[in-house]
Write a structure and sequence with these properties.
Elements lengths: L5 E4 L3 E5 L5 E6 L2 E4 L4 E4 L3 H18 L6 E6 L2 E5 L2 E2 L2 E8 L2 H7 L6 E11 L11 H6 L5 H24 L2 E12 L5 E4 L7 E5 L13 H4 L5 H22 L1
Antiparallel strand pairs: 1-2, 2-3, 3-7, 4-5, 6-7, 8-11, 9-10, 9-11, 11-12, 11-13
Helix pairs in contact: 1-6
The structure holds thymidine-5'-phosphate.
Length: 248
């Protein structure tokens, strides 16, 4: 047995090698950053909560036919994943205007978009993760035209599945960010995580624009009760997953 090597440390996760070269172990951290790491802090218990939420969402997506890097959750804050070559792209899907879309277009926050908007950002901290046009993305060879079409298609399918699921939890999926990786056989699969760190989630049972926020915007904008909001998201997901069992 070779001892695990730290392969990469990101803002929210550390990746370790395992005995199986095609698999990595992801450790979810309590560390939180925002605005390209200009704001730093910790959200106590976030590692375990996000790992649990991402596990449930990956299982849901797999059950709906989406291939992800998820293999299993061997510990509360650990996820065993397939090793992929991560594309340097952040694929953002938006259902409702918020965040940078409002800042850059003037659309009022909360505007329901007529159809989901898929955007590509260059995952490059030094450049501040800029929004890309299709032509810039192709110019930089960050993906092939075929991969771009597939990313677009997968992002929309994932959005549809997650939107319906969160709605059943009385949560509105405002927007979210995805990352994809290439397997050795050049298959594009969903990677990274889906959690309150990477989504905007609004509580449907709250009308107050700040009170309804259940995601990292609570940390970004110092709204308080960050842990409570993340925990509430997990509790609702778990409760919903248990519902069919109750019926049987
Ligand atoms: P934005 O409105 O700031 O562009 O964010 C869109 C969505 O992407 C939102 O759900 C938060 C998520 N996101 C990340 O997961 N990582 C990031 O680095 C950024 C900027 C946004």
């Amino acid at each position: 047995m070779s001892s695990p090597q730290k392969l990469y440390e990101g803002k929210a996760k550390i990746l370790y090698t395992t005995d199986e070269p095609s698999m990595l172990l992801a450790h979810f951290k309590d560390d939180a950053t925002a605005f390209n790491a200009q704001k730093r802090g910790q959200i106590i218990g976030k590692g375990e909560i996000n790992c649990a939420i991402a596990t449930e969402l990956f299982r849901l997506l797999e059950a709906e036919g989406i291939t992800t890097h998820f293999i299993e959750q061997p510990a509360a804050n650990q996820m065993l994943i397939r090793r992929t070559q991560i594309l340097p792209l952040e694929v953002v899907v938006r259902n409702i205007a918020a965040g940078s879309l409002c800042q850059q277009t003037g659309l009022p926050m909360g505007t329901v978009l007529p159809r989901p908007l898929v955007e590509f950002y260059f995952k490059n901290d030094a450049l501040g993760d800029p929004l890309l046009t299709r032509d810039r993305l192709l110019l930089l060879e960050l993906a092939t035209p075929e991969q771009l079409d597939e990313l677009n298609q997968q992002a929309l399918e994932i959005n549809q599945i997650l939107k319906v699921f969160f709605n059943q939890c009385s949560i509105t999926l405002v927007d979210f960010k995805l990352e994809f990786g290439l397997t050795p056989s050049q298959e594009l699969i969903l990677a990274d995580e889906i959690s309150p760190d990477t989504c905007r989630l609004w509580n449907q049972t709250e009308t107050d624009p700040q009170g309804r926020v259940m995601d990292k915007d609570r940390f970004r904008h110092d709204l308080g009760k960050v842990e409570d909001a993340y925990k509430q998201v997990l509790e609702r997901i778990v409760a919903l997953k248990q519902e069919p069992e109750k019926d049987n």
